[in-house]
Amino acid sequence: MHERPYATSDTRPTPGSNARQTTGSSGFLRWQVVCAAVLVCSCSQQGILDPQGPIASQEQLLLINSTAIMLVVVVPVILATLGFAWWYRASNARASRSTDEGYEGRTEFVTWSIPVLIVILLGGVIWIGSHQLDPRAPIPGKADPLRVEVVALDWKWLFIYPDQRIAAVNQLVVPAETPVEFRLTSATVMNSFFIPQLGSQIYAMGGMTTHLNLLADKPGEFPGFSAMFSGDGFSDMRFIAKAMPGGDFDAWVAQVRGAGSALDDAAYAEFAKPSIAVPPRTYRLVEQKFFERIIERTVSGSQRPAGAAWAPTVQQTGG
Q1: Among 186, 236, 189, 240, which residue's Cα sits nearest to residue 216?
Q2: Alpha-carbon distances, residue 153 vs 92, 171, 222, 300 (angstroms)
Q3: Which residue of 2, 57, 69, 316 lies most exposed, with the fewest beta carbons within 10 A?
Q4: If DSSP codes are grouped into helix, strand and coil, which group holds residue 127?
Q5: What is the pTM of this model?
Q6: 187-197 pLDDT, tens per residue?
């Protein structure tokens, strides 16, 4: 009887294995490069991390302070977790392990007192900062405040300058170093007005008025958008906030007065119809208190643009 020889495994690499290892290594390297690029891009300052006004600067400081306070707990917990995992590893014979359950008062005190203190401190910082950043609080500046009335439409923004008797769609032009007093409402559904580099997201609601004060420290162009989903054209509901020197702003106002189309009931009814990616345009105001008339129309539900999604009727109030 012949004995069957034991099967032996061939440990020599096959030609395809090297190719698979090389492909896997190159793929892993590509993922490392992509992840590094994403991290570098995420560290670039833009939006709320690139404040261009006093409100945005205070909000950034509040964000940094809150993060630093939370890291007081997060960092020690991460380090302690790694330290415990390393010290009590199975191969460490010096680590003493006890199976007896016991209560250690000092450990419980530290475990609970530090998070409680952090919550109290964090709540105090946020409470004080939130009241200091009241959207209705006036901002001191080098010139008298500029009044701008904002109307959210489907899917565009209407900016009315009541003192200058002009208006603009998807274009906000303000003088730098001048406080801007916004009054906001919506002619359709509830929306959210946000210019990250200037700060303070705030809601615009149908039949209601909210207030916001902002200021741009220097000339520049800052993107603004709708921060709340409001329908099909939500993603294109964007505008550019242009801050320019006072002289340039006065020249822009004079140009709009001389060349802009007239904003009357017929013009408003036309551009208030739902539309997407509307290019910027300017108008001359024909009637006084156009902003108040839009609110009255929204409350009463009269003269609705065809196909527009209007908000439920609510009573006008201050916000």
Answers
A1: 240
A2: 67, 14, 21, 17
A3: 2
A4: helix
A5: 0.74
A6: 999 999 999 99
